[in-house]
Design a protein that fits this description.
By secondary structure, this protein is of the alpha/beta class. It is about 40% helix and about 25% strand. It is built from 15 helices and 25 strands. The strands form seven sheets. The chain has a seven-stranded mixed beta sheet with strand order 15-18-19-14-13-21-22, with helices on both faces. Strands 10-9-8-11-12-24 form a six-stranded mixed beta sheet, with helices on both faces. A hairpin with a 3-residue loop joins strand 6 and strand 7. Helix 1 crosses helix 7 and helix 3 packs across helix 4. The model has no long low-confidence stretch (mean pLDDT about 95). The structure holds nicotinamide-adenine-dinucleotide. Nicotinamide-adenine-dinucleotide binds next to helix 7 and helix 8.
């Protein structure tokens, strides 16, 4: 084994760090340098089965552990995430390619917020009762489900992993979790933190490996009662195919093709600043990023000129440098996919206003996967480029003349995750918001997140909602009890 490799991961099962049963490991690559960053277990159904046995063994006591105790443990996990921010942020950046300042400012702080939020949430979670005059009273129990599966993607690795695990264990379940095989290292560091925080053995089990082998084994396992999945629509479809006949509870947070609708009466400077952010933060690899920018015709020219100027000024560089606004694309496979999508856009008749190319940096990152932020115009609303998710630093521009046309263009997509509306006419903005087919709408802002709000999409963007009570409801089974008086 190359001793230079910073991390060699082991599955976390029943509180122990164990090798995969087949002794096989996968390479995990730092996308900024193309060097091996970690070796990770290539787990299969045997490892998943061992994790389920451990989770089942822990469930009888964890499910009746007083909420005050769960609250304390989850808060300790949050505190330890904060204390280890530097190491976690560096691991996240080396694993994912995102700028280190972004990992420090967004990803890791949000992971501790997730634990703190659901630690508090479970203390306040209440159920209903329904009185039938003097005849009977119904009350509703919300009980933990048992062993649940949590599967997460690579774009916000620890942020989304903890967004699932925290409500699941807060609600009294035991978890078998799998981070993306592309970015697994912060999940491994989290397992060490959970052990240090005193989370009882078996409450959280983490297995590493591919979607086809390890992920599907979680979905197929008879004793895993619910699956919370975030990832591509393609994988979500596959998971639904397996899980639906088994009548598993499913939460699917899938892809997007989000519109930013820009009216002429917007607050120009704020809109411009935030649209740059919503288009290119995390190299455009946030499910909530705007990828179709719809601009009112009267300001189309002005917008295009200024937007392109500002995109040109985005510094692409070594993710470890504070000055880099854009880091590396997460993997070679994803890099190739984005480059192919840009080629498709050209073939479809799109004009590249800026970008469109891979970028070779000098020095440490000379082999890394970097792509210029790319702006394309001149495409029809229903071409492949405007219909399919690219999930990279690529946006298209389209113009509209009326409010109705803006809504029509927004809804031309098969996805419906997040939309952004820019207008100072608040009545108009609210009218449009009500008609846009989307689970989330931001008016005059982007990515302003309140963890209490329902989070999720419509159409091909998924099924169910995460966040706040929605998450705690998902991770509990409801039972109505009727007592005759
Ligand atoms: P992906 O679907 O390839 O993988 C996501 C996770 O699922 C990984 O852990 C993977 O190993 C696993 N997986 C893949 N196939 C599986 C299968 N058949 N059975 C079980 N598990 C399987 O997605 P990705 O490339 O890691 O992430 C990017 C995608 O995630 C984009 O489509 C993006 O829009 C989406 N995403 C959605 C949200 C949201 O909240 N809606 C948030 C972030 C990312």
């Amino acid at each position: 084994m190359n001793l230079e490799i910073p991390y060699r991961l082991e599955n976390y099962i029943g509180g122990e760090f164990v090798a995969p049963m087949n002794k096989q490991y996968l390479d995990c690559i730092n996308p900024a340098t193309a060097e091996i960053f970690a070796l990770i277990p290539n787990s299969n159904e045997q490892d998943v089965d061992a994790a389920v046995v451990a989770a089942n063994a822990a469930f009888s006591s964890w499910s009746v552990t007083p909420v005050e105790e769960r609250f304390k443990i989850l808060n300790r996990i949050a505190d330890l995430i904060d204390e280890n921010l530097e190491e976690l942020a560096l691991a996240e950046t080396n694993d994912n390619g995102k700028p280190l300042w972004l990992s420090k400012r967004m990803d890791i702080p949000r992971a501790s917020s997730n634990f703190r939020f659901f630690a508090t949430g479970i203390m306040h979670f209440a159920t209903e009762s329904h009185s039938m005059e003097n005849k009977a009273i119904n009350y509703t129990l919300r009980q933990p489900i048992g062993v649940v599966g949590c599967i997460s993607p690579w774009n916000l690795p620890l942020y989304l992993f903890t967004w699932k695990i925290a409500p699941a264990i807060a609600a009294g379940n035991c978890v078998v979790a799998k981070p993306s095989e592309v970015t697994p290292v912060t999940a491994y560091l989290l397992s060490k933190i959970c052990k240090e925080a005193g989370l009882p053995n078996g409450v959280l089990n983490i297995v590493y490996g591919t979607g086809a082998s390890c992920g599907e084994a979680i979905v197929k396992h008879k004793e895993i009662k619910a699956i919370s999945f975030t990832g591509s629509t393609r994988a979500g479809e596959q998971i639904a195919l397996i899980a639906a006949p088994m009548f598993k509870k499913l939460s699917l947070e899938l892809g997007g093709k989000n519109p930013a609708i820009i009216f002429a009466d917007c607050d120009w400077e704020k809109m411009m600043r935030e649209t740059i952010r919503s288009s290119f933060t995390n190299q455009g690899q946030i499910c909530l990023c705007s990828s179709r920018i719809l601009i009112e015709a009267s300001i189309y020219k002005k917008f295009t000129t200024e937007f392109v100027e500002q995109v040109k000024a985005l510094t692409i560089g070594d993710p470890l440098n504070d000055s880099s606004r854009q880091g590396a694309i997460v993997s070679k496979i994803h890099f190739d996919k984005i480059i192919a999508c840009i080629e498709t856009a050209k073939q479809e008749g799109g004009t590249i206003l800026y970008g469109g190319n891979a970028l070779q940096l000098e020095g440490r990152c000379s082999n890394g996967y970097f792509i210029q932020p790319t702006v394309i115009e001149g495409l029809s609303p229903n071409c492949k480029t405007n219909m399919e998710e690219i999930f990279g630093p690529v946006v298209t521009l389209q113009s509209f003349s009326t409010e109705e046309e803006a809504i029509q263009l927004s809804n031309a997509s098969n996805y419906g995750l997040a939309a952004t509306i820019w207008s100072q006419d608040i009545s108009k903005a609210n009218r449009v918001a009500a008609k846009v087919e989307s689970g989330i709408v931001w008016i005059n802002c982007w990515l302003r997140r309140d963890l209490r709000t329902p989070f999720g999409g419509v159409k091909n963007s998924g099924v169910g909602r995460e966040g706040g009570w929605e998450a705690l409801r998902f991770f509990t089974e409801v039972k109505n009890i009727c007592v005759e008086l």
